[in-house]
Every structure is written in C-alpha cells, then in structure tokens.
Amino acid sequence: MRVFRAGAIAALAVSQTVAEILYAGVNSAGGEFAQQNLPGAFGVDYQFINETAIDFFLNGGMNTVRLPFLLERICPLETGLGSTLNETYFTELATAVNYITSKGGYVILDSHNYMRYNDPSMQPFSGSVIGNSSDPKAATTEDLAAFWAELSRRFIVNTNVIFGIMNEPHDMPTALVLQNDQAMINAIRAAGAQQLILVPGNGFTGGHRWLENTCQDESLECLPNSEVLSAITDPLDNFAFDMHLYFDNDTSGTHEECTTKAPSNLFPVTTWLQENNYTAILSEFGAGANPTCFESVNDTITHLEESGVFIGWTYWSAGPLWGDYFLSIEPDEGPQANSTWPEVLEPHVKRYQPMMKCGLSTNGKGGVDLDRKGLEGCLGAKLP
Ligand SMILES: *[C@@H]1O[C@H](CO)[C@@H](O)[C@H](O)[C@H]1NC(C)=O
Ligand SMILES: *[C@@H]1O[C@H](CO)[C@@H](O)[C@H](O)[C@H]1NC(C)=O
Ligand SMILES: *[C@@H]1O[C@H](CO)[C@@H](O)[C@H](O)[C@H]1NC(C)=O
Ligand SMILES: *[C@@H]1O[C@H](CO)[C@@H](O)[C@H](O)[C@H]1NC(C)=O
Ligand SMILES: *[C@@H]1O[C@H](CO)[C@@H](O)[C@H](O)[C@H]1NC(C)=O
Ligand SMILES: *[C@@H]1O[C@H](CO)[C@@H](O)[C@H](O)[C@H]1NC(C)=O
Ligand SMILES: *[C@@H]1O[C@H](CO)[C@@H](O)[C@H](O)[C@H]1NC(C)=O
C-alpha cells in the first residue's frame, strides 16, 4: 500500500500491482528565467507561479506542477554550491511549493541546471560540469549532495514534494551522471526524506535516446543511460527515471512542426523499463499547436498510459512570464491555452479522476509506506 486517494479511506487497503498515471500536470517555468542576470529581481526577471493559473490546473483535475529553480540563485556564487542557501530565493520558492501542496497538488522541485554550476548565462552550455575533477572551478559531487541534503531536509514533512534532482545533464561522461545522481540520492535518504526522487540521464535525459550514445564528441564517453544507470540504487526503492521528449526535427522543442516518429521512438526505452522493473516520468514534452503535433502528443500520452511503466507526465509549459512563447499553455495568455489544454491534455486528465491528492509521493511500485501520523497530517483528519 503506497497510494492514498483523497476521500476514500477504504482505498488504504488497496495495493497497486500495475503502474498507472499517478502524476499529471504542467511545468510552471519562470524561477530559472533571465539566468544571465544574477541574482535578478523577483516578479521581473523570474517568478515561479501565478496562483490563479495553479488554481485553474488543479481545479481542472491535474495534480502535479514541476517547478524549475536556478542553482546559482538558491546557492549564490559567493557561498558556492552546498548547504548555504539564499533565504530570500528559498522563501520565494517555498511559498510557491506550499501554495500548490496546500491545495493537494504535488510539486516536482526541478534543479534546472544541466548538471552544471557557476555560469548559467548561456544555458544549457555554459558553466562547469559538476564533479569534473580536471576543472578547478567546478563544484564537486559532494557540494551537489550537500545542497540536496539541505533542500530535502527543509521539505521533509511535505509528503507532496518530489525531488527532480537535475534537469537535462548532457555532454559529459555518463559515468559522472551516475556518480552525481547516486550521491544526491544517498544524501536525500541520509537526510531522512522519503519522497519520490526523479533520476535523470545523459543526453538531455531524452527518452528517445536512452539506449544510445549521446555525445558528438566520443572522447566524453557518453555511454547509453540504459547501460550505466542500471547501477542506481535507492535504499527506499522510491525513484523513477526522469525523461524528456520533443517532437521537432532535432528534438529540441524549438520548432512548430512535429517530424519525429513519436511515440514509436519511445518503444526501446519502454521495453527497457518493463524488462528491468523500472518506472519513469515524462517531465518535459511539448509541441506546436497544429493537427500533426496534436496527434503525436495525444498518441504519446496514450502510450505512457498503456505502458505500465510510465507513472506521470508534465507538459512544457505553463509559467507566469512566458508571454506569447509558442508552447505556453498559461491560462488566458498562452498561445496554447485554448487549444492544447482543452483539446489534447484535458481529455486524458479527465480519465484519471480522481487523482491522488494526498499521500507520500511514490513511484507506484516501491515499498514506501506513509506512516499513520504522516497520513493523518496530510489529510488533516484522524484515521478510523
Ligand atoms: C495571474 O493570472 C491572472 C489571470 O490570468 C491575471 O489576471 C494576473 O494578472 C496574473 N498575475 C500575475 C502576477 O501575473
Ligand atoms: C538573495 O536573493 C535575493 C532575491 O533574489 C537577492 O535580492 C539577493 O541579492 C540575493 N543574495 C545573494 C548573496 O545573492
Ligand atoms: C572538464 O574540465 C576540463 C578542464 O577545464 C575540460 O577540458 C573538460 O572539457 C571538462 N569536461 C567536461 C565534460 O566538461
Ligand atoms: C528543422 O526545421 C527547421 C524549420 O522549422 C529548419 O530551419 C532546420 O534547418 C531543421 N533542422 C534540421 C536539423 O533538420
Ligand atoms: C521483475 O519483476 C518480476 C515480477 O516481480 C520478476 O519476476 C522479475 O525477475 C523482475 N525482473 C528483474 C530484471 O528484476
Ligand atoms: C482563451 O480564451 C479565453 C476565454 O475565452 C480568453 O479570455 C483568452 O484571451 C484566450 N486566450 C488566447 C491566447 O486566445
Ligand atoms: C486521442 O487519441 C484517442 C485514442 O487514440 C482518440 O480517441 C482521440 O480522439 C484523440 N484525440 C485527439 C485530440 O486527437
């Protein structure tokens, strides 16, 4: 028993055998914006959520929001990556997190840093690769672990939080991705946090190339995630792989036309997940607002639902500062607010109801029980 559905205490006795879509929602990007401008001004350069938009999505049946934040803002360069946080930025982030989780939503804390730290100005390519021992300016694996120990400790009692430990590592040895991922997992568990951890891979964590080498530069040893990340261990077995997918000609999500063969490009990774008893979340996917793209996105979500191994998805993207960005589904103002949401995403979400709104975030297969006290706290009510 790992999953509790609001209003159905009887469901406490029901255990899950097959993965289902436990988490569905959107990214609310913005906390990482204007990354060339540090620290930047809240509400101008960066902002996490518009509360009205969050209400819209949660009232519409979604239950998950992925919240990007910038490491160089939460750990300023003056003090470096580690356990010393900028309390102002942390409070801005925590205010958004608490708003969403107090309404029963799940929040994926997304460290939006491409496994790099110290110069986000030209993301995704600038900055030292974390743990690169031949770069004297690079933050270490231990620094990264110390950061996650501190952040997870601060959310230890918020069962609706999910740890998205790193956005889109790329162009680095896959062995170093493994080393950093494992150190973050160990640090979070050592801190006592039990929530779901999302584990990224190399190659911008692309689901479509999970079984392939991912670097142009072969000397970097970008071995397939499928070969290297099978070494990941979690003492609580409460992790899922974190994957992204875009549908344009270079899978970058920067073109309106959908020309890749989705979801068939996910079939290899789906089989790998099934054969190895893993679960995964598609935490970024987005496509233009046209019939070909709608079909690709719709068929991809159907594939996730039928796979038995994908436990969630969050669309890219909502967010308060996007303006007329072509992928924005921010209510009222986003170009896709009146198309992708009602025509493609909402029909799927309607079929998931009621979605889990309370209970420890879980991979749907691992063995984490929320203790009685934790569950009662989360419900705000005494169990019979
Ligand atoms: C939030 O969204 C509402 C509704 O779309 C809009 O009226 C309001 O201006 C937005 N607030 C901020 C701070 O962006
Ligand atoms: C901490 O963050 C706040 C809000 O962004 C900013 O005003 C302040 O300058 C930051 N402090 C440091 C040391 O970066
Ligand atoms: C690690 O640092 C060295 C020295 O700065 C650099 O040549 C190398 O490209 C870096 N490795 C990666 C993966 O960035
Ligand atoms: C992708 O499509 C765009 C047009 O939308 C084109 O300009 C670009 O050259 C194409 N890139 C590749 C890698 O085919
Ligand atoms: C996956 O789980 C099934 C059923 O519990 C088990 O029979 C199988 O050996 C597992 N496979 C792997 C690779 O762990
Ligand atoms: C979407 O529809 C709403 C309600 O009809 C409207 O207020 C809003 O301007 C529309 N948004 C766009 C981007 O067309
Ligand atoms: C999505 O796919 C389902 C089943 O494959 C189909 O019934 C539905 O009409 C599709 N929706 C759109 C918007 O194409």
TrEMBL record:
Any one GO molecular-function label of the UniProt entry: cellulase activity
EC top class, as a word: hydrolase
Keywords linked to the UniProt accession: Glycosidase, Hydrolase, Signal
EC number in record: 3.2.1.4
Superkingdom of this protein's organism: Eukaryota
Gene Ontology process terms (BP): glucan catabolic process
Alphabetized InterPro entries for the sequence: GH, Glyco_hydro_5, Glyco_hydro_5_CS
Signal peptide per UniProt: 1-19
Catalytic reaction annotation: Endohydrolysis of (1->4)-beta-D-glucosidic linkages in cellulose, lichenin and cereal beta-D-glucans
Keyword flag Chaperone: no
Any single Pfam family the record assigns to this protein: Cellulase
Sequence ranges assigned to domain Glycoside hydrolase family in this UniProt record: 27-319
Family label: Belongs to the glycosyl hydrolase 5 (cellulase A) family.
Protein name as annotated: cellulase
